[in-house]
Amino acid sequence: KALLFVEFGGSYDTHDDVIHVAAEVPGLVQNLPVSAGDLLKKGQLIAKLKSSDLALQLKAARATRNKAQAQLTFAEKELTRYTKLEQTQSIATGKYDEILYQKESLAHEVERAGAEIDLIKDSIAKKTVPAAFSGFVARKHAEVGEWLPAGGSIITLVDLRQIRLVVDVPERYAVQLQPEDEVRVRVPSLSADPFGGQIYAVLPRGNVEARTIPVHVRLANPELRIRSGMEARVTFSLGTRTEALLVPKDAVLTAGGKKMVY
Asked: DSSP assignment, residue 194?
C-alpha cells in the first residue's frame, strides 16, 4: 500500500506581488537611477522629482510663521500687563477682551502656519520615491526630464520572495485538497529536486467545461532563483491509500496489440 500522489503542471502567477510604483505628487523627474532587471532593496531610491519650487514655498511659510510667532510673543506680554490692570479695575473690560482675543487669534495663526509647513515638508518628502519592498524592476515607465502627474507610473516592481502558483486541478482531486496542505513543486529548468510548498486557497469556482478547480500554492523563494512565468510541476498528496502491483516500466512490452510483462 502507498500514498497516492498526483502531479499537475502550472505556471507561476505573481500578479498579487506586482505593483506599479507611482508618484504621489506631480513633478519633473530629476533622477531615475534604476533600469529594467535591477534587483532593488527595500527603501532603495527609485526616483526623485524636482522640488526646488517647494523649497521656496517652505522658506516663505517659515518666514510667515516666525512673524506670527513674534506677534504672538508681544501679545502674550501685553495680555500679562493688561491682566494685572484688569484685576485692579484700572482699564475697561472691553480693552482686556480685545487683547485676549488678539492673543488667541495669533496663536491660531502660528498653528496654521505650522500646519502649512508640515504640508509642504510632506510634499517634499513625496518627491523622493523609495522601493516599498525588495524586488526586480520589470519595466520602466518614465525617464529623466519627463513630467509625471500625480499617480503617474514610474516602474513596475516584482516581488519574487514568495512565489504564488496557480494549478488547475480536476475536480475529482480538488475536492480532496485543503488549505495548508503541503505540496512538492519541481521546477525542471532549475533542479530535479522538488521545493516545498503549501496550498493557501482552493477557489470555490472552476472551469465548467474542463471540470477543473484553480488551486493556489505558495512557495518560498529566498534566493530569488525562481522567476515569474517558469514552468512548474506540482505534486499533491491526496492522502488515499491504494493497493497496486508495481513493476519496472521497461518490463512492460507491447506485442500484437497486447501488453505483456517479462
From this structure: P
